[in-house]
Amino acid sequence: MEIKGTAIKSIIEYVQDVHSDKFLDWFNSLSDEAKNVVNCVVTSGWYEMQHGVVETTQKIGALLFNNDFNKAAVESGRYSAELALHGIYKLYVKVSKPGHIIERASRILPAYYRPSYMETSERTPNTVKLIMSDFDEPSDIVEYRIIGWIEKALEISGCKGVNVEIIESMSKGSTKTVFLCSWN
Fold first, then answer.
1. Which of 99, 149, 160, 162 has a C-alpha 20 to 30 A away from that of 25?
2. Cα(141)–Cα(66) distance, rounded to whole angstroms?
3. 30-43 pLDDT, tens per residue?
4. What's the gap between Cα 43 and its chain centre?
5. From CA 70, how far away is CA 99, in angstroms rounded?
6. pTM: predicted TM-score of the whole model, two decimal places
7. What was the pLDDT predicted at 108?
């Protein structure tokens, strides 16, 4: 399972920008394999997911969130959305309907994780289900990172009362991960 360098860069920038005083501690806590990825990451490259996102996010959780790895994943996912949806993209998100933003999110996943697939299902004016499949290495870290990304994207689009929850999870043994996204 591979992750795009852009996603790894956002994790590095999250620690540098939001927790700059802990960056060196975070970096030094990484395995040699993860350090090599962090040191050499190219945004257009593809890297092994375990060292690129899972380990790096787990170390954020251990160091900055009292071992709350899911919180670390959500926060770094939110930061990633903020980076991705800036400039002209931010304007596009602000003028688009939330359901359209979620549908676009389903197309974005395969651009960051391979192999992967996501589709929308059961859409109403204030809810949508996203179904993730074809993910070779299920990971709760990745699932919660996606929660954070979707939350922030919906907030940027102007949604209030955003809630994203996992109602089925590949990391818990299901054949798919289902995200239920709702907003006011």
1. 149
2. 15
3. 999 999 999 999 99
4. 15
5. 25
6. 0.91
7. 78
Residue 33 contacts residue 51 (beta carbons within 8 Å)? yes
Dist. CA 26–CA 81, nearest whole Å = 22
Q: Give the number of residues written for the chain.
A: 184
Residues 6+ apart with CB under 8 A from 91: none
Give percent above pLDDT 90 in the chain. 71
**Residue 16 amino acid letter:** Q
Angle between helix 5-18 and helix 69-84 axes, rounded to 10 deg: 100
Strands 163-168 and 117-124: unpaired
Return the amino acid letter for 50.
Q
Q: Report the pLDDT value the prediction gives residue 66, as an integer from 0 to 100.
A: 97
116, 109 contact by CB (below 8 A): yes
% residues pLDDT > 70 (the chain): 89
CB neighbour class for 73 (10 Å; exposed up to 12, middle 13-18, buried from 19):
buried
Distance CA(36)–CA(18), nearest Å, equals 22
Cβ distance 181 to 129 under 8 Å?
yes
| Cβ pair 81, 146 in contact under 8 A | no
